[in-house]
Design a protein that fits this description.
The protein contains ten helices and 16 strands. The chain is an alpha/beta fold and about 350 residues long. It has one domain: Alpha-Beta Barrel (TIM Barrel), CATH 3.20.20. Strand 8 and strand 9 form a beta hairpin. About 0% of the residues have low confidence.
């Protein structure tokens, strides 16, 4: 049985700009409504660093209360909420132009000292549990996704996750790579592009079957050519996102060399229900079915971002396709449900 998990990174733009209503609350409500219609389950990876910081600002408090109410409503409707964390928000302050001024010295959780990583994770985990145990007394924050997928170097962050009681991570996507001054990771050597693995305490890419290790449930990824990545939908996102991201690439890179490298190499294509077209998602799911090596439970993790949920018909079409063609093969579950079932196996 294949389990399809829809995970949603729940946040505004990475440079501290954007409307909470337009980028978080509104699109997420539309997503959840469609999921409810088809019996699908969504795991919201809530970016709690920005929520905790914004809540301290009087001008943002009402908006964050809407976010908290939505997370509670999602739980009450059978969805899930887990921990997403961009540490550059922890020392952020509001700027005069409405943009939040972020602390880029703390951009990567993996590069923080062990003690600070533990402190931040504990605060984030406690924030979610205090909020959501009012809805479900048995709720436990047990899964994590790193800000900008930064889980390299792995030793400190994996020990910190284990220290605070996090059981699983979902940051890795095979062949993903970033080596800028703020964001840094390399998942070329990740154990799998789709199958979960217990991670080595020093290297999230490696499998280690020792007892009580953090479980990695990777974002499902395939390799694709540059030209297959250029779709009308992705170009639309490129136009919409202009000016909303920080430059995390080293200065002075040769533009022609960058372009040639992009054209010549294969790229990681995530199962992203916001960015992929409906035909792309259908074909990817067909290939997933062909790969199933288990007779019991194979969790396939897809990803989307609340700020990018604009093409609702594609998501609806995907759910219709699953229910029509794979109703007896694919189930929808949350992260919490999958972790409980994997523990019993």
């Amino acid at each position: 049985m294949i389990v399809l998990m829809f995970t949603l990174d729940y946040e505004i733009y990475g440079n501290g700009t954007g409307s909470i209503e337009d980028l978080i609350v509104g699109p997420t409500e539309r997503l959840l409504a469609i999921a409810d219609e088809f019996g699908a389950k969504v795991t919201v990876f809530a970016e709690v660093a920005e929520f905790m910081t914004m809540k301290e600002s009087h001008s943002c408090r009402a908006a964050i209360e809407k976010v908290e109410a939505q997370m509670a409503s999602a739980m009450a409707r059978g969805h899930d909420v887990q921990l997403h964390f961009h540490p550059q928000w922890m020392n952020a302050r509001p700027g005069s132009d409405g943009r939040w001024l972020l602390d880029y010295s703390e951009y990567s959780m993996a590069h923080l000292p062990f003690g600070k990583a533990v402190e931040y994770l504990r605060r984030g985990k406690a924030y979610l549990e205090e909020l959501l145990q009012r809805v479900d007394p048995d709720y436990v924050c047990s899964a994590f996704r790193a800000g900008n997928w930064c889980m390299v170097p792995s030793g400190n962050i994996l020990r910190a996750l284990k220290t605070v009681g996090i059981k699983a991570d979902s940051s890795v996507f095979k062949w993903g790579k970033e080596q800028g001054p703020h964001a840094f990771y390399n998942y070329d050597d990740a154990y799998s592009s789709f199958m979960p693995w217990p991670v080595d305490p020093e290297d999230i890419n490696r499998r280690n079957d020792g007892a009580d290790h953090i479980l990695e449930i990777p974002i499902y990824t395939e390799r694709a050519t540059f030209f297959s990545m250029i779709t009308r939908k992705r170009l639309a996102f490129k136009r919409l996102s202009t000016g909303t991201r920080n430059d995390v690439n080293p200065e002075g890179r040769n533009a022609l060399r960058v372009l040639l490298n992009a054209v010549c190499r294969l790229h990681p294509k995530k199962l992203d229900f916001c960015k992929l077209t409906l035909p792309e998602m259908k074909k990817m799911l067909d290939r997933v079915i062909a790969k199933d090596p288990y007779g019991s439970l194979l969790p396939i993790c897809s990803i989307g971002h609340s700020k990018e949920f604009r093409f609702e018909d594609d998501f609806r079409g995907l759910l219709e396709y699953v229910n029509r063609r794979y109703k007896d093969i694919i189930q929808f579950k949350t992260f919490s449900q999958v972790l409980k079932e994997l523990k019993r196996q």
